[in-house]
Amino acid sequence: MIRVVREGGGASLTLVVDPSGSAHGRGAWVHPDRACIAFALTRGGFQRSFRAPVDVAALAKEGTLERACEAMTHPNWGAEPHLEAG
Questions:
Q1: Coil, strand or helix at 86
Q2: The CATH number of the domain where 43 resides is what?
């Protein structure tokens, strides 16, 4: 699961991915699946979870949820290869 938290206050709430899963404040969880992410972004899932209007445009535009999804489904991408002396 990917955790998203809100930043800011008042009328301008923006969403950011919480890679540690332990940032302070209200958070929402979404499955690491492109269909679930698209559904949450387009159908108001985050607004319902946070019980307030939130700006999902930056989150959708930057592709941060998609990158988090890729990191969870392919955890070894970008990792150093393991070499053994032989």
A1: coil
A2: 3.30.1230.10
14 within some domain:
yes
Q: Which structure tokens are listed for 11?
A: 């009328």
| CB of 47 closer than 8 Å to CB of 76 | no
Residue 6 class from Cβ within 10 Å (0-12 exposed, 13-18 middle, 19+ buried)? buried
Confirm if 78 and 46 have CB atoms less than 8 A apart. Answer: no
Supply the pTM of this predicted model. Answer: 0.69
pLDDT along the chain (86 residues), means of 10: 82 80 88 84 87 80 73 57 48
60 to 9, 39, 67, 68: CA distances (angstroms): 20, 12, 11, 12
